Amino acid sequence: MSDSHTPLLTVPLDALHRELGAKMVPFAGYSMPVQYPAGVLGEHLHTRASAGLFDVSHMGQVEIRGKDCARWLETLVPGDIIGLGLGKTRYTVFTNDQGGILDDLMVSKLADDHLFLVINAACKHEDFAHMQAAIGTQVEMRMITDRALVALQGPKAAEALGTLCPDALAMTFMTIRELDIAGIGCLATRSGYTGEDGWEISVPTDRAEELVRKLLALPGIMPAGLGARDSLRLEAGLCLYGSDIDTATTPVEAGLSWILGKRRRAEGGFPGDAIIQKQLAEGPSRLRVGIQPLGRAPARAHTEITDEAGNRLGEICSGGFGPSADRPVAMGYVPKDFAAQGTKLKLMVRGKALDAEVASLPFVPHRYFKG
Amino acid sequence: MSEMRFTKDHEWIKVEGDQGTVGISDYAQHALGDVVFVEVPEPGRTIAKGDEAAVVESVKAASEVYSPVSGTVTKGNQAIVDQPGLVNESAEDGAWFFKLTLSDPAELADLMDRAAYDAYLATLE
């Protein structure tokens, strides 16, 4: 909840953003850089060609400690956390009793009794309260408020970070480890949300600006804002909580069935398990799909999707112009009979029915470093 | 060519006789960011003052271009449809959106001149 009288929170890098000429906007209660002087298009293209550095310190960082903490977290998420290897990171979601998604998150296993979570800014207090209420007596949990979080993303990220921290290069996609980056102790995952290789780096607040200045001084790295982060993740076919997934969508409908491990599918044991297992067995009634507008006009969120005869099928959940795709790109929910790649659709944009078709995701191939 | 006049929605119009040329201001293109899509009206379309006449979209958002005056469209600028980035390069010059024949030139009196528009922009910061 926010109201106009609540002052915006600032991130530890606020002064640096302003020094770099960022345009700051309110986002999830924080004043955040939406773009720098290069602009959304320039920052997006630079990230795909070289590397972008994003401040995502508004996101929640949580640590959970205690015997069986993986087993307890599994009571809230459908992912396989017990089976997650040491030093590995996994994408999952919190579900509700209807199988809807309360938030999506990254879970990393630092030790069998120590998990590290990154949760969405807009959901972090609800997520924490939800975990506290459900498993707070079984495990010890802490919202980490003394660390910033930055994402270094792009094909030149490895070469650049490697000059400050050769150990980072030994990591593969979706792993976590403590790194000494130019003398600054950080906790990093080789992950991100752009479809590119890169790292998300958790750094103590009092060293954050020093770290970011060192990273920005490396060749090929440009600061990039939330605007580029959004267009990058959309091209990569990744879900934005609140737009593409929410409490009214299940992981199966969202095309995230892959996050359910084999054991979890069979055993259940998470909120909404019966509904999700039924959808897995029978197929969901609707699905999130990639949608390619065939003309040049972008179709934004909430654009109505119809069949060729004009019957309503659903809505675009995320849509815009894909700078690397160099054309409009979108995702939306359609009935399962209309979810096959190549299915012809119409998008109602400003009263006109524009041609589109179901496209495979991602729009731009992922380039993760899998070793 | 007459002087440029502006709306509070950041459109401009230049008028010669009863022929007007409409675009968006430099302030508007800067606020939008990189323009990636433009839609201009078809010749022959009759529009009233304040009607949505054209569309301009950046990576992040879509905006309408409202007609500063009433009239009949005579031409849309195909160049900015083909190269939307021109809007960022020359918003108040080559990257006009459409031309129209004014039906009520008296409406021009409601618009701001450059000095008044600059003063208005100063209130927005």
TrEMBL record, chain A:
Residues bound to substrate: 200
InterPro entries, sorted: GcvT, GcvT/YgfZ/DmdA, GcvT/YgfZ_C, GcvT_C, GCVT_N, TrmE/GcvT-like
Family membership: Belongs to the GcvT family.
GCVT N-terminal domain segment(s): 15-261
Catalytic activity: N(6)-[(R)-S(8)-aminomethyldihydrolipoyl]-L-lysyl-[protein] + (6S)-5,6,7,8-tetrahydrofolate = N(6)-[(R)-dihydrolipoyl]-L-lysyl-[protein] + (6R)-5,10-methylene-5,6,7,8-tetrahydrofolate + NH4(+)
GO-annotated biological processes: glycine catabolic process
Any GO MF annotation of the entry: aminomethyltransferase activity
Record EC number: 2.1.2.10
EC primary class: transferase
Name listed for the protein in its UniProt record: aminomethyltransferase
Organism listed in the record: Paramagnetospirillum marisnigri
Domain Aminomethyltransferase C-terminal, chain residue ranges per copy: 288-364
Keyword Transferase: yes
Keywords: Aminotransferase, Transferase, Transit peptide
GO cellular component, one term: glycine cleavage complex
Automatic annotation (TrEMBL), chain B:
Cofactor: (R)-lipoate
Residues that span the membrane, as ranges: none
Top-level division of the source organism's lineage: Bacteria
Biological process according to GO: glycine decarboxylation via glycine cleavage system; protein lipoylation
GO cellular component annotations of the record: cytoplasm; glycine cleavage complex
Cofactor binding summary note: Binds 1 lipoyl cofactor covalently.
Domain Lipoyl-binding: 19-101
UniProt modified residues of type N6-lipoyllysine: 60
InterPro entries: 2-oxoA_DH_lipoyl-BS, Biotin_lipoyl, GCV_H, GCV_H/Fam206, GCV_H_sub, Single_hybrid_motif
Keywords carried by this UniProt record: Lipoyl
Subunit structure and binding partners: The glycine cleavage system is composed of four proteins: P, T, L and H.
Sequence similarity: Belongs to the GcvH family.
Protein function: The glycine cleavage system catalyzes the degradation of glycine. The H protein shuttles the methylamine group of glycine from the P protein to the T protein.
Protein name: Glycine cleavage system H protein
Protein species of origin: Paramagnetospirillum marisnigri
Gene name, Swiss-Prot/TrEMBL: gcvH
